[in-house]
Automatic annotation (TrEMBL):
Residues annotated as domain Metallo-beta-lactamase: 7-190
MF GO annotations: hydrolase activity
NCBIfam families, alphabetized: PRK00685.1
Organism per entry: Panacibacter ginsenosidivorans
Protein name, per record: UPF0173 metal-dependent hydrolase FRZ67_08760
InterPro entries reported for this sequence: Metallo-B-lactamas, RibonucZ/Hydroxyglut_hydro, UPF0173, UPF0173_UPF0282_UlaG_hydrolase
UniProt family annotation: Belongs to the UPF0173 family.
SUPFAM superfamilies for the chain: Metallo-hydrolase/oxidoreductase
Keywords: Hydrolase
Pfam families attached to this UniProt entry: Lactamase_B_3
Amino acid sequence: MKLTFYGHASFAVQVENKTILFDPFISPNPQAKHIDINNLKADYIFLSHGHGDHVADAVAIAKNTNATCVAAAEVAGWLQKQGLQKVHSMNHGGPIPFDFGTARGVSAIHSSSLPDGTYGGNPLGFVFTTAQGNFYYSGDTALTLDMQLIPVWAKLDFAVLPIGSNFTMDVNDAIKASDFVQCNTIVGVHYNTFPPIVIDTEKAKADFAAKGKKLLLPGIGETVEV
């Protein structure tokens, strides 16, 4: 599978000839000013929660690409109020079939409100199973023992975890999370965008390597094999 990083916690995964875009916060991010959202492709847009630094470009990209947006019920309802019709509402629970495989909503320990201040429901992580491989995006979350359930559902090829601390896990907790989900290939997100989440990236990679794990930190706009 190929993963393209768009800054902060936004990335896309190409799987089964589909492009799945996650948490698009691109045009408001000065670090991603070289990314033109009008040129992005997406068949699906998965939103982990309603905060502005995760949904900022969702409506514009969905309208431009005709992508199906997938999110918790409250976020899905807000998207529909913005004029989107291709919206799939979900919550924690069993796997949901899509044409690329399945997606399961799992616990994320965070908060969720929408840009208009309304309640955004429960934040989510996602576990994907596909014929080309399996992966986990935790969304914004603290370390939680619920992560130990994920290997029950899928043997992961890679996991996408926040590492910036302050609002989410830090590097050390992300290493423990990788133990819980039994995956040693980690893509780090949600770091270095704002002063409270600036980290030493070289130390982060070294800390993962010391535990026999690989931390991938692609540049904004860079595509990596995972």
